[in-house]
Amino acid sequence: MRYASNGTVAARGSRHTEGDTVISRRVVVTGVGLLSAVGDTTEATWKGLLECRTGISRIESFDASHHNSQIAGEIKHFDPAKFIEKKDIKKMGRFIQVGIAAYEEAIAASGLKVTAENAERVGAYIGSGIGGFEVIEREHKALLEHGPRRISPFFIPATIINLASGYISIRAGAKGPNSATATACTSSAHSIGDSFKIIQRGDADAMICGGTEACITPLAVGGFAAMRALSQRNAEPERASRPFDRERDGFVVGEGAGVLILEELEFAKRRGAPILAEVVGYGMSGDAFHFTAPPEDGEGAYRVMRNALRDAGLNPEDVDYINAHGTSTPLGDKAETNAMKRAFGSHAYKLSVSSTKSMTGHLLGGAGGLEAGIVVCAIRDQVAPPTANYENPDPDCDLDYIPNQARPMKIDCALSNSFGFGGTNGALIFKKFTE
C-alpha cells in the first residue's frame, strides 16, 4: 500500500481512504542540529565525518585509569553557557544541556517560529536511553557523605529522561504533543518515527524531535565494561571503534545529540522553509530473543527494515545508502549484515553501507537522532560518509561498508537503523524531496 498526499486534510487529524490508497500528509525535514565528539555543530560534525576524522580519545572527564575501557567519544570544550542562562545550568543534567544545544541549531537552521497562533500545532519529542547519570552519581555521593539534606532540590528534574523534551518545549513555546522515549539505543529513532506519524495523521504540523545522551561517567563506563561490551583498545583510541572489521572488540561510548525539525509539507512550504529531505518510512520490531544480544541471523533487524520499506511503499532496490547501527561488536555487526542481506536480497551487495559510530562512538539513546541527521546531510550533499578503521575484511561481514573515505554518489533514498537492549528496533527511511 502506498501513501499519497492531498496537501491538506479535510479536518485536522482526519485520515481517510480513496479506493485502496491511504490519504495522509507528507512530512519533511527543515532543520538539523548535531553535536558529537567529531564536531560541536552540524556542519563541523558533517565535515569531520566526510574527512574520516575520529572524535574518540582517552577519557578526560574523569580518571579512567582503573577501568578496563578507558576511551570514549567526548564532546571537547562544550560550554552550556552559550545556550543556557548560568543560573539554569545547575538545574539540568548534561544530556539536557547537550540536547538544548542541538535544538538551538536545528530550530535556527529551519527558521521555524513558534507563535501564539501555531503553538498548539508544534510539539517536542526527545528521547534518551539513560538520562542524567552523572547527576545520579553526584547526588548519591552527597547522600552517603553528608546525608539526605544535602541532596539538591534539582536532582530529580535534572535526571529524568523527559526533561530534555520538557525544557525544549518550554524554550520553544511548543504546546503540542510533548513526549520522550527511553528505548535504549533506539530511543531517538523511535522519537523521530513517532513524530513522523504524529504529523502524518494530523495531530501536529511540526515536531522538534530526536535524542540526546551524555553518560560518560565512572559508573556507566564501568557497567558497560563489566558486560564486556566495550572495546579495550586503550592504546589506540582512534582505532578502537571499527564496525564490521574482523578485529572489532566492542563499542566505544559516545555523547552528543541529534535533533530534527519535522514539518507537514504544506505548512513548511507556506513559510518558505528549507526542505532538506522527506521522511517516508518508519518501522518498529522486537527481537523477543535476549535482553542484550541480537539473534545471530538478525531476524528482528530484518523485520524492522522490511516494516519501514512497507510503510514507505518502497522496494528494496529503491534504497541507495544505509547508515547502519554498526556498533563494532562481534555479534551485532554480523547480525545486522545478515539482516541486510535478507531484507535486500541481491540488492544488498549493491548498497553503500557505513557506520559513523566508527568516528563518533555510540551515543546510545542519542545515536538514532545523530545518525538520522547524518542521513539527511548525506541526501542534501549527495555524498555518503565512510566507515573508519575498516582494514581487515570479515568474511561474515561482506557488504560494501564505504571503507575509510567518503563517497560522492546518488542518494535518492536512505535508511537509518537503530537497535537497542531488550530487542527493540527502529528504522527510518528518508528520500530526496521532490514535488
Characterization of the model:
The protein is α/β, with parallel strands linked by helices. It has one domain (29-431): Peroxisomal Thiolase, Chain A, domain 1. Helices cover 31% and strands 19% of the residues. It has 13 helices and 17 strands. It has a 10-stranded mixed beta sheet with strand order 8-7-9-10-4-11-17-16-12-13, with helices on both faces. A hairpin with a 3-residue loop joins strand 16 and strand 17 (424-431). Helix 3 packs parallel to helix 6 (163-172). The protein is globular and about 65 Å long. Residues 1-19 have low confidence and may be disordered.
Name its key features.
435 residues, alpha/beta, Peroxisomal Thiolase, Chain A, domain 1, 10-stranded mixed β-sheet, 3-stranded mixed β-sheet, 13 helices, 17 strands, 19% strand
Q: In order across it, which strands form the biggest sheet?
A: 8-7-9-10-4-11-17-16-12-13
Distance between the termini: 20 Å
Q: Whole-number radius of gyration? A: 21 Å
Q: What does the oligomeric state look like here?
A: single chain
β-strand amount: 15-25%
How many E strands?
17
Report the CATH topology name.
Answer: Peroxisomal Thiolase, Chain A, domain 1
Based on Cα principal axes, name the global outline. globular
Approximately how much helix is present in the residues?
25-40%
Mean pLDDT: 95
Please give the CATH architecture: 3-Layer(aba) Sandwich
Spell out the CATH superfamily. Answer: Thiolase/Chalcone synthase
Major pleated sheet: 10 strands, mixed
The structural domain count equals 1
Low-confidence stretches: 1-19
Q: Which structural class is indicated by helix and strand composition?
A: alpha/beta
Order of H and E elements: EEEEHEEHHEHHHEHEHEHEHEHEHHEEEE
The number of helical runs is 13
Question: What is the CATH class?
Answer: Alpha Beta
